[in-house]
Design brief:
The chain is built from one helix and nine strands, in the order H-E-E-E-E-E-E-E-E-E. It is mostly beta strands. The protein has a single domain, classed as Thrombin, subunit H, CATH 2.40.10. It is globular, with a radius of gyration of 18 Å. The relative contact order is 0.20.
């Protein structure tokens, strides 16, 4: 199924209405190399609002004829962003601070250019 722009806009509006009260604002930062190939200080990229959540646990059946199953404990930190011009400035390996914890964006998780359900890595 092909997504047209009006359908994307409707979905985006519904998401904004439903999850905005639960969203938190973060400042996205980036660390680039300077002309001497040294790491520079934190460069400001943009300020966005998103919804922090973790992945869930799932059970996968190995074979329909047996009683075997695999338990997948996927507690990946994630940050859901509704795509707009500010969100499009974000690149992988950008980072932000949320509730005194630093997170690095390791995968954008782009879903039809409507939302990014980004995968995060906690930074020490």
């Amino acid at each position: 199924m092909r997504w047209n722009e009006t359908r994307k806009q409707r979905i985006r509006r519904q998401l904004v209405r439903k999850i905005t009260p639960f969203m938190k604002e973060v400042k996205i930062l980036r660390q680039d190399d300077n002309v001497f190939k040294e790491k520079s200080d934190d460069d400001y990229v943009c300020t966005v609002k998103g919804y922090y959540h973790t992945g869930s646990t799932s059970i996968n059946l190995v074979n329909d004829s047996s009683d075997a199953a695999n338990l997948n404990r996927n507690y990946q930190d994630r940050f859901l962003l509704i795509v707009d011009d500010e969100v499009n400035k974000i690149e992988e390996h950008d980072y932000f601070k949320l509730d005194a914890v630093m997170y690095e964006i390791i995968d954008k998780g782009n879903i039809e250019d409507i939302v990014w359900d980004t995968y995060l890595k906690r930074m020490e």
